[in-house]
UniProtKB/TrEMBL annotation:
<keyword id="KW-0378">Hydrolase</keyword>
<feature type="binding site">
    <location>
        <begin position="120"/>
        <end position="121"/>
    </location>
    <ligand>
        <name>substrate</name>
    </ligand>
</feature>
<feature type="binding site">
    <location>
        <position position="87"/>
    </location>
    <ligand>
        <name>substrate</name>
    </ligand>
</feature>
<dbReference type="InterPro" id="IPR020827">
    <property type="entry name" value="Asparaginase/glutaminase_AS1"/>
</dbReference>
<dbReference type="InterPro" id="IPR027474">
    <property type="entry name" value="L-asparaginase_N"/>
</dbReference>
<keyword id="KW-0812">Transmembrane</keyword>
<dbReference type="InterPro" id="IPR006034">
    <property type="entry name" value="Asparaginase/glutaminase-like"/>
</dbReference>
<feature type="active site" description="O-isoaspartyl threonine intermediate">
    <location>
        <position position="40"/>
    </location>
</feature>
<dbReference type="InterPro" id="IPR004550">
    <property type="entry name" value="AsnASE_II"/>
</dbReference>
<dbReference type="InterPro" id="IPR037152">
    <property type="entry name" value="L-asparaginase_N_sf"/>
</dbReference>
<dbReference type="InterPro" id="IPR040919">
    <property type="entry name" value="Asparaginase_C"/>
</dbReference>
<dbReference type="Pfam" id="PF00710">
    <property type="entry name" value="Asparaginase"/>
</dbReference>
<feature type="domain" description="Asparaginase/glutaminase C-terminal">
    <location>
        <begin position="242"/>
        <end position="352"/>
    </location>
</feature>
<comment type="similarity">
    <text>Belongs to the asparaginase 1 family.</text>
</comment>
<protein>
    <submittedName>
        <fullName>L-asparaginase</fullName>
    </submittedName>
</protein>
<keyword id="KW-0472">Membrane</keyword>
<feature type="active site">
    <location>
        <position position="40"/>
    </location>
</feature>
Length: 356
């Protein structure tokens, strides 16, 4: 179903009964929009034992919902098919469309929360983007699966049920954008994909999950501390600043950095070794890039931890910014938004990275 189309309610009709004044009954279920974008959760293969050789994004949102009849006892569902892609092909234009649609839904009195089905490959990037740009306190929950819908023991149906359960929970209000996966609830800022195949592929390695969801019960163990959603200055606009990522490794050269600078990029995030350390050849190229107006952010290719300022490079002298605990991909998201919001200079941008 196209965005903005008529809604489909899968809740039992008696949840929609109204009093004589026309006010919905007090026991009416929460109204949750489910936005489908494709991914493995909407994937299909010819063989139920095949969990890698499938086509992503071929199952429509209505079929995803039909596979989870228990949703009728959790929420009234408004489904929309936003896209049907493999999330490895996520594009900036689709990010714009998705963020604008989420904001429109959250502004509506007819919607109590939003669930987004997504591919796992770029889920953490999309989630963090929305975490910084959604302008509402209603729950927004992303979910996905590691096995296609056609697979034996597909994990998508339970993840979808749990995501809707979280979105329908009062406890999820004001927590920013969340990811519900394998019974855990993660903050969009913290969660990363950690496995190529396991059903518990998403983890918040540095500080742990926010809580859990199981058998209809939602429990949060902690709250999100850093500003998000309505407390950020970031908005989705028509233009995205060009920010790219380079990696430091043994024997690395400056070729990639020089090529990106020549192409006119506005920012470069470097996935450094260890505490964001950078091969001497690449570091010199990045230092030269700064003198030409390119913003450089040091992150790390290591799976967890944080990059300390001046810990592995003379950041003050070279004009570098450090990403803290953000991995290179999330650091790119934040840098694009910061540049689009008018952020300039290493000092101001470092303050943004320290804050978010």
């Amino acid at each position: 179903m196209a965005a903005g189309g008529a809604s489909l309610t899968i809740a039992a009709m008696n949840t929609l009964t109204s009093s004589s004044s026309g006010t919905p009954a007090a026991h009416a279920l929460p109204r949750i929009a489910v936005l489908a974008t494709g991914g493995t959760i909407a994937g299909s293969a010819a063989d139920v034992t095949n969990t890698s050789g499938y086509q992503a994004g071929v199952v429509g949102v209505d079929r995803l919902l039909e596979a989870v009849p228990a949703l009728s006892g959790v929420a009234q569902i408004q489904p929309e098919q936003i896209a049907s892609i493999d999330s490895k092909d996520m594009a900036l234009a689709l990010w714009t469309t998705l963020a604008q649609r989420v904001n429109a839904l959250l502004a509506s009195d007819e919607i109590d929360g939003v669930v987004i089905t997504h591919g796992t490959d770029t889920l953490e990037e999309t989630a963090y983007l929305l975490h910084l740009t959604v302008k509402g306190t209603k729950p927004v929950v992303l979910t996905a699966s590691m096995r296609p819908s056609s697979a034996l023991s597909a994990d998508g149906p339970l993840n979808l049920l749990n995501a809707v359960t979280v979105a329908a929970s009062a406890a999820a209000h004001g927590q920013g954008v969340l990811v519900a996966f394998n019974n855990r609830i993660h903050s969009a800022r913290d969660v990363v994909k950690t496995s190529t195949y396991a059903v518990d592929a998403f983890q918040s390695l540095e500080i742990g999950a926010l809580g859990w969801v199981q058998d209809g019960r939602v429990e949060f163990q902690r709250k999100v501390v850093r500003p998000h959603t309505v407390d950020t200055e970031f908005v989705i606009g028509a233009k995205w600043p060009n920010v790219e990522i380079v990696t430091s490794y043994a024997g690395a050269s400056r070729i990639a950095v020089d090529a990106l600078v020549a192409a006119g990029v506005r920012g470069i995030v470097v996935a450094g070794t260890g505490n964001g350390s950078i091969h001497a050849s690449v570091q010199q190229a990045l230092a030269d890039a700064v003198t030409q107006g390119v913003v450089v952010v040091r992150s790390s290719r290591v799976g967890s931890g944080h990059v300390m300022r001046n810990g592995a490079a003379p950041d003050d002298a070279l004009g570098f910014v450090t990403a803290g605990s953000l991995n290179p991909y999330k650091a790119r998201v934040l840098l694009m938004l910061a540049l689009a919001a008018g952020g300039t200079g290493a000092v101001a941008l470092q303050a943004i990275f320290d804050k978010y």
